Every structure is written in C-alpha cells, then in structure tokens.
Amino acid sequence: xxxxxxxxxxxxxxxxxxxxxxxxxxxxxxxxxxxxxxxxxxxxxxxxxxxxxxxxxxxxxxxxxxxxxxxxxxxxxxxxxxxxxxxxxxxxxxxxxxxxxxxxxxxxxxxxxxxxxxxxxxxxxxxxxxxxxxxxxxxxxxxxxxxxxxxxxxxxxxxxxxxxxxxxxxxxxxxxxxxxxxxxxxxxxxxxxxxxxxxxxxxxxxxxxxxxxxxxxxxxxxxxxxxxxxxxxxxxxxxxxxxxxxxxxxxxxxxxxxxxxxxxxxxxxxxxxxxxxxxxxxxxxxxxxxxxxxxxxxxxxxxxxxxxxxxxxxxxxxxxxxxxxxxxxxxxxxxxxxxxxxxxxxxxxxxxxxxxxxxxxxxxxxxxxxxxxxxxxxxxxxxxxxxxxxxxxxxxxxxxxxxxxxxxxxxxxxxxxxxxxxxxxxxxxxxxxxxxxxxxxxxxxxxxxxxxxxxxxxxxxxxxxxxxxxxxxxxxxxxxxxxxxxxxxxxxxxxxxxxxxxxxxxxxxxxxxxxxxxxxxxxxxxxxxxxxxxxxxxxxxxxxxxxxxxxxxxxxxxxxxxxxxxxxxxxxxxxxxxxxxxxxxxxxxxxxxxxxxxxxxxxxxxxxxxxxxxxxxxxxxxxxxxxxxxxxxxxxxxxxxxxxxxxxxxxxxxxxxxxxxxxxxxxxxxxxxxxxxxxxxxxxxxxxxxxxxxxxxxxxxxxxxxxxxxxxxxxxxxxxxxxxxxxxxxxxxxxxxxxxxxxxxxxxxxxxxxxxxxxxxxxxxxxxxxxxxxxxxxxxxxxxxxxxxxxxxxxxxxxxxxxxxxxxxxxxxxxxxxxxxxxxxxxxxxxxxxxxxxxxxxxxxxxxxxxxxxxxxxxxxxxxxxxxxxxxxxxxxxxxxxxxxxxxxxxxxxxxxxxxxxxxxxxxxxxxxxxxxxxxxxxxxxxxxxxxxxxxxxxxxxxxxxxxxxxxxxxxxxxxxxxxxxxxxxxxxxxxxxxxxxxxxxxxxxxxxxxxxxxxxxxxxxxxxxxxxxxxxxxxxxxxxxxxxxxxxxxxxxxxxxxxxxxxxxxxxxxxxxxxxxxxxxxxxxxxxxxxxxxxxxxxxxxxxxxxxxxxxxxxxxxxxxxxxxxxxxxxxxxxxxxxxxxxxxxxxxxxxxxxxxxxxxxxxxxxxxxxxxxxxxxxxxxxxxxxxxxxxxxxxxxxxxxxxxxxxxxxxxxxxxxxxxxxxxxxxxxxxxxxxxxxxxxxxxxxxxxxxxxxxxxxxxxxxxxxxxxxxxxxxxxxxxxxxxxxxxxxxxxxxxxxxxxxxxxxxxxxxxxxxxxxxxxxxxxxxxxxxxxxxxxxxxxxxxxxxxxxxxxxxxxxxxxxxxxxxxxxxxxxxxxxxxxxxxxxxxxxxxxxxxxxxxxxxxxxxxxxxx
Length: 1398
Prior knowledge:
The chain is an alpha+beta fold. Helix content is 32%, strand content 24%.
C-alpha cells in the first residue's frame, strides 16, 4: 500500500503544519499569518476527526459502543494523503481507512468508475484479518453450484395449477439461481475468482484517516465497550462467512461481501412457522439464504371438482442450507411470492434487505457481472411484455385529450432503451421527455447536491420538454439492476406537433398558465368504475400499486380465499383457467377480480396464470383501501349496492360466527329473510332516512360503528363484528344505542327471522344455539383481555401453565360454552361430572354441599376454575354446589376431548400422565381429618373443623408458583388456608431461606386465616419440580367456625403464637450464624479488606441461602453474573465452558468479586455440586445499596479504586508483563488474567499469613513486582523475596508449613489464581506459546521453595533433637511440592490436565 505523506489526526499532532514551518524558515512571516495557518490546520484536523468519528459510529461493527470511545479512536487515527490517480492497496491486518478529504474512484471489474466521497470506509474486513478467510472460501473452477450441493430437492409431480409445468415454475420463480435451465450455468463469474477491485485517488487527491485495530482495542476496553464490539464482530463474521460459503454473490471481492454482511440480518424460525405466504409481497426483502435447518415450498393444489371441496397445500420442493430465495435482477420491484415457504425444522435464514442491496449495487455497479446472464433473460422477457409506446402515452394525463392520430405519430418516434445500474441516462442540457417504465433512477442536482429517486411510472423532464422551464444542471443515473426507459426527443416532437394546430394550442396554453403536469403514469378508467365519478376513481388510483408477476406464476387460485384484490393488466399476458381448462386470454388493459373486491364472493371462481412468454405487470387495488375510499363517497356506495343485485350473492357472504358450521341452505334462508342495509353516517337509519330496528342481532359487513350499552360502556364495532347473539337463545335484546361512525353495510336479524329460519331447518337448531353460546363466550374472553381465539383463558388453571401454545390452541378449540340463568346450579355436590369449568362472565357463589345456611356466601371471581380433578380422572363427582347469581357464561372442557388432544402432543401427554398418577396416590381421607391432625387444630372439636371445611375447594399450583407471599395482609374472614393433598412446597423466610418443606397432609396458612397476625409471616412456594394440589379452606367458613365456637379461638391463637416464637428463635440463630461464619469469610475477600464488621454484617443479613443437590449446577459458564457466591458447605467441580473438569472448590470458597465490581458480566466457569452443597449469594446491587444507606464513603471509594486498579492491570497486563514470557501487548488472555489478579500492598515490617480459606478456591501463585521481603518459618529465615531473585512464589507452601512473609520495604504483590489462568486460555483454539514457559517457571519456583523450606526445617529439627524423643520427619516432596505441582499441571502441549478431585 502506498504511504503518501502522513501526519497525526488527533491532538497529538504537532502544532503548525510542515509547510508552515518550511515557509517560516524560507521567508520570515508575520506571526498573525502563522497563527492563521495554524488555526486553519486545527479546523481541518477537527473536521477530519468529526468525519472519522461519525463514519465509525455508523458502522454495524460499532453498534452499541460508546460515543466517547469512537471519538478517542478517531482522535488516534493517523492521516494519510494520496495524490491523484495513486492506487490504494487493501492488506490483511492493515488499518481501516476513512475518507476525510477529497474522493476515491472505484473500479469493479469492467464497470465505469464510481466516486466514493467523505465518510466512506475502506478495508474494514482487512483490518479484522478476514481477507485470508475469504481466500479459503474463494470459488474455483469446476466447484459445485448450490443446486449441485443439494440445496434444493424437487418433490414428486403434483396436480398444482395447470400441472407439472406450474409445479416447477413456482419453484423456479422463487429460486431462479437454484434451478439451472438449458444445461448451462447462470453465474457467469463462478469460475473467475474475484472480480478486480481497484481503488484510486480522485482527481484532487484524497486524504484518509487510518484506524489501526490496536487503537480500537485500547479505547473500547476503557469503558467496557469491547464486549459489545466483539459480539458485533462475531455476528458480522458469521454472516460474512455464510455469504462466501454459499456463494450468494460468487466472484464478489471480500470488501464488498463484508458490506453486504453489514446490511444483512439473521432470522430464526421454529418448525411449522410460515416464512412467507403465496401471493405475499415483501419488497423490503431481496434475498433469503437458508443457513441452518430445512424448509419446504408448498402451494395450494387444485381441488377435485366436487362442489364445496377446498384445495390443500402440496409440497413442491425442499430447501436445505445453501438454498437461495430471490432474484437480484428485479429486487426493486414489488413481486408477490409464487408459493409458500414453511420451516420444516428449526431454521435460520440470512436475509438481505432490498434497500441495502440496492445501495451497495449503486456504489459498486460492476457487481452486476455476476448475474449478467440472468439480466439478459429478463431483458428478453420484457421486450415481449411491455405495452406499446402509444398505450403508455394514453396513460399520461397530459396526452389524455390529444388526437389519437397524434398519439400514434408520437408512439412511432418513441425510443425504448434498457440500462444497467450505474449507467447515465441524461446529463445537463438534455431536453427529452422520459418515462421510467421499469426500474429506479437517481436524479442529482449538481448545484445544490440534492438527490431524489424516480420510481417506476415516474415522468422526467416534462417542464423542460414543453418549454415551461430552463434546462437544469442535473444528472440522471440508474440505481436499480435494470431499468427500461421510454424517451421522446424534443427535436422530433416539434415537427409532429405542428401538424395538429388544436393540440399545439392546448400545449401552449397549458405551459402559459403554469398548470402542474402529472408526474406519474395514470391507469385508464376500468369498466367497473365507468359509471362512477371522476373524483372517486382518482381516489382509487391513489391506493393502486404496481406489482410484477413472473412467467407461469399464478396470480390467484381457483377456490382460494385471499385478500380479495382487483387487478388491471398494464403489460404482459395472462390466461383464465377453470378446473384445468383455459377459458380466456387477457392482455394489457383487461382487468379481473371485480366480484372479489366488492365482496360478492369469498373464493376465487377461477385461476389467473401469467403467460410463459414473459412477466406480467399489474396495477393492484387492495380491497381494504378500496372500501376506505368508498366511505368518503356515499353516493358511490348506492351504485355498488345496486350492482350487487346483478350478481348471485350466495350464502358465503354471511359471516355470522355462530353459523359457520351450518349448511348453505340455512345461510341462504338468512340472506333471503334478512336484507342488507347501508346506513347513514352518524344515525341508525338508511340513506332514505328510514329507522332501523334495535331489537335484532346485527352483523357489520363494512364500515365502523359505536354501540352504547345501558351501563354506559362503549363498544367499537369493526368490519366483521356482530352483537345481539343472545336473541338466538331466547334472551331479550339489550337496551342500547347504535351510532355509525361511517356509512355502514349491515345485516339485521330480528326474533321473527330467527324463528322462521329455525322452523325451516329444525335439524340445525342445536348447531345454531351452540354457535351463539360460543360467540358470547368468545366476547366474554375478550372482555377479560384475551384476543379472539387466544388460549390464554386456559392459563387460569395451573395444570395448563406449563404447556406449549400449540397444545393450548388445540384445547381451546375443544371448549364448549354453557350459559346459566340466575338461580341455576352450575355444579351440584356429589353430581357426576368429568369436565373442567372456567367462569368467564357473571357472578356465582360456592354453596359447599348445599345443605347448610350460607348467610356469608363464598363469591366466585371471574376466571374461577373448578373440576380439575374431574378432568384429570381422579374424581367423577363434583365437590361443591356452585350456583349462578346472574347470567353466567362458563367454558367447559370434557375429559374425553382432553385425552383426544393429548394423543397428538407427547410431551404434554407425559406430563399429564405423571400428574394423573400422582393424583391417584392422594389418600382417600376426609378433609376434616387432615385439619384435625395438623399442628394448630389438634385441640379443636370436630364440629369446629366441620364448619371451617365447608365450601373447601380444590386448587392447583404450577411448579415454582407461590401459594402465599410473606407480607400479604391477613384478616379473619378473608384469608384462606391450605391443606396439601399432592406434591411438596417450600416455606421461605424473610431472606428466602428455606425454613421447612411441606408434604402431603400438611396444613399451612392457618395463622393468617385465624387473624393471629396482620401479615403473612413466611412465603410458601411450590417446589420447582412438581405440581401442588391443595384443598383450600375459605376465610368465610373459618370465621363462621370461630363465631360458632368462640371457646376454641383463644387456644388456637396460643398454639399459633408458640409457632411464631419458634420461628423467631430460628431467625436469631440465623443472625448468629451470619455473624460468626459468613462475615469472617467475606472480610477475607480482597474487595472488602477495609470494610468494618458491622457494615459487613448488615450486608450479609440480606444474603440468599440456597441448597444444591449433588450433580446440580450452581452456576453456568456464559450466564449473566452479578452476584457474589460463597460455598458454605460441600464441594463443587469447576468446569470450562466446553465441559472439561479442571479442579474443585471447597467450603469457604468465594467467587464473583469482579461481577460485584461490575467489570465482568459473565460466569467464566460452571460449578457442579459433587455432594449436597449450601451456597450463599449476595447481589452486587445489595452491596452498593447498603454502603450508600450507611453513607460508607470510604468503602465506596475503596471499591471504585479497586475497579480502576483492575482496569489498569488489564491495560498494562499486570502482573504477567513482569515475567519473562514474551507476551504481546495485544494478548487478550494475559489481559483477562491481569483483570482477575488480586493486588496486595505491604508496608515495611508488615506480616502476611495466608487466610484460612486460601486453598478453598484453588492454588494461588505470587508474582512479586516491587520491594523486598523475607519468608519466615516461625522465627527462622527461609528465603528472600524480590523481583530480581524470586518473581514467582507458591502461596500454598506458606499454608502447608504455617509460614509467614515479613516485608522489609514497601512491597507490591499480585495473587494469581490457578483457575483464572486455565479458564482464561481455555477458550483459545490453540494455547498461547507463553503458557508452557509459565508452567516451567511455576515448577522451578516450587522446587526452589521446597528445597529452602526442607533445609530450614531439617536444621530446626536438629537443634530441637534433644527436646524430642522421636523427631517428626520433614515433609517431603510427595506431601508438599507434588501436591502443589499437581495443582498447576499442564500436559506436554501446554494444556491444563483434568484433575480427579474425588
């Protein structure tokens, strides 16, 4: 790469430029001139920094990184100047360049040069070292195409549309690059390697800001933005590699592929998800590449000729990784998909947006060379499909009133040309009239620099063409892969116009008056709208959109239910097919879909298929937009209403929800007896002013209306809504008012119509009535906040809360609505029943067994569930009598329906089988016996218990769900209690400590139910691995028992009070345990070295204690951290993220100090319990909050200093840089080790002894960086420590020999943990070179320390020999050093050995 002149961009630049200094040396200058030059240079440097910062911040690689980091990176960038025409080379691991002055010319392949301006970024992929990766994935001659790599597999022949030809056409239209036709390769650059990419400095030269990777790493690490940067990089590299590996753009240079990766997105789909629908338009999506999983292409198959039979989806082909969906040649057009794409398994797809692809194409137009053969195919297609020039001119309002002979003459002089992306269509001084038929152009005003886009159907240059304006300094270039433009030159237009004086006068008058000329092509008035006003058709034209269908594509399918759009053919040809027989051919100017857009039919009566000779361009009128335009013109509504009488309006239009399961005969009777009406806007009358009835059921076909109910509620009715269904059940009509917001089309069914309809179809009476009940229940669910068909109502029952959504949807379809009038029984005590019931509307009460006076009724809330034990099969009779107090709506689920659905869902079936088996194990014991045997009610009489148990019902709790929470308000008569019949639950104290576990027959919540305490004293939660089934005793019943037997109340309160006393004793013991055990361990942590015992006790008081069973995970590598973990009891294995065991931690181990400081967000290791473990966790927020509450400023400052110190260690690689390991400045592993190292400072004469738990978290090694100290065994000198002689020292040997270290001067020591070292390098693909040398230094340090300690110990024992009868032998290497060496052992490859810690 050419260097050019180089000066710093940031503030480190020397004051004054080199030219200024030379000028000063040559000729003395006025100081004011020098100052002006310096100010100018500073302004330029500031502008360059701002441009660089803005460019970096806008890159996907830096999304989420702080602005300050980007600013500092821009400041450190160096300036590099290239003279005009000099080539810039892109190198791997070289700097990234940002253009800050001048421009660069880009040449890709044989394309013309394109200019890159300020802020453009170059060599982003090279900076990351990805050019070599691209070379490995470069396509070579004779490599297999994606189709040859089995990315696409056709299914067997299917009866789709017009047959097998349509079968393959639908697939080829979706995946043109996957379907090789005529036995030739379509990708012309497949075997050419990379297209040549050349970057040259512009005509005025270019100034570049060079950004090295080291600057990015250093500054992003300062504010923790590096993790976000790495995540962005990983995501972009994944997309970059996929684009190269799957040859989405074969031959495209890596730099452009990286740009493509920056605009791409990765989207995941679950099995069964629809990626896109047949006929759906996604103009924002250019390409979709299957990366993982499998998807299938399906299409609606032609049904048999049996009347009423619907088509079915048939699989056409299967797509696997490498399959490409999309066509770059026409990515700018709105093209409906030719088939449906569904995920067969969990699928990941790479999606390239249209906007990003077009932007990159416009920047590098030469990339069209890779699909040039496909472009030429489209050119050949379009040449036979576009309308005649005369037909285009008729669509212009300017020529609408011209003589037809003139139009034919103009059509003869029109020139139709095609252009590729980047081609210049017109430049300054051009006075021709241009019509963009297909494609998109960029119009750039050179004087102002403003750019606008001219889309398809746009007209360019009309004012200049007719002399209404002077030619402007503009350039028109193509910004889509392909563009067809119709051109009329002014020179040829004038002689023709002179032969038509009337038209010439018209044009001169138009220009003189300055009328605005239409800038878009207009659609001729369609036959359906010829009787309408011009204003209405203009309103319809504003909602039309141009869509392109590919050859052999099906626009609409016979019998299909689609959006109901209408189409007008602008270019191309189509055929109408009915049951496989062509009945008509259509060309430009024809239209179809009139009956669908008017709503006369719901299913298409024929298929419309594009000719195989070329594409078809249509103007689509979407039905919703058409109806919206119709609302603004009431007079036109009357016309279309009269038009409806000309069609055979069959019962398919009747969309009453309760009649969906009924026959066509009943629907036709309904349409015959209940006529449709169009209301006036704002009043419930017809257009003629006739009052409409209010005592009927109403269905709203079109429009919007407000319904004001008697209770003041206002309901908004949209299209398809209905109300008044209760009339079908014989209930009276509601007193309400109806206010049409717009002109509405409605159908009103009065009670006499319902009677006549059911009398003529008696066999369908029950279907109609049940349909009405289901519709009323669906609306009741909506009032509870659940959308229509949403299964959320089932989650009121805990037995369904752990089920998947698909299962719940199927169960929801099996619900049967029941309606109960006031006073009717919903269930009766002892009555047979196998259904689950959910109350969705109305009020009802629980009367227990129905044999007692209920002066204090148990009212049931909405969403109340009963019968769970019945639907599970553990009981065939209902427990209580439930009675409706008002009109109640209940959703019922029968046991047989549940079992039927369970057969299709194995996971849920297994869960329910387990639940049913546990239910069958529930002891058949009276509830009163459970309560009598409880700890509180043992002294109460049976009569007292019997009253308290009245109305008790069954309730279930899902795994982990709360039965009650600590602090909830309690009151006699309102608070309930529970008796466990199945499962187990945990009783949790104030700090989530598990006080005890509840099992079958245990009673809980009695203290609150008796009113002994005003709040719940503990939390009770279902265990996370089981359901809990309880019998709930209501507060009302307990209050009735207390009132009937007041003599028992005081004794019960006394028993409950004694239990509370025992709980208080437990809390006292807990406080002592925290003070005596937890606090000393915390005070030994480096980050809490200056915390007082009182402050530490207040922090530890709020700890959370958890018990972990053997083989369960305490924490998982990669999961979010944020808590300090202390292993109080037990032993746990330490595993890397890959699952390799590297050691174990024991009681007293503290982990997570960096997460408390907020500088490490993830767990580095997985801890798995080797036996039953007790773990204490303290959150980071708790520590900081307690310090702030106690105003512990010194401790807060100490924590902040610790954070700064750790970051400094990471930046400077302390302490690893002190060791002779030749570690590079950018070594990430050494930085991570440095971040975890603990810094210890010893003043002169300070003594240090290892803490009692020093081996709990694994072995530590000292790195001695400053000062001098002595190691003492008792009072005997062992060895001296200093950076020159002993840089490494094993801490564990001090613990083994009970030795100490005494500082002789100010000492700085770093404690490095073994686990931190191994975990830091475990993620590397290959171990760093310095790891083996580090292990050798550790072995040497331990051997040296062993010899020193053994010698001193031998001398000491010789001196004391006379005092000992049998001297104890010195510890040998097998006891000390071998243990320490094992703790730091690597294999011959420099990788850590897996240690058996059993």
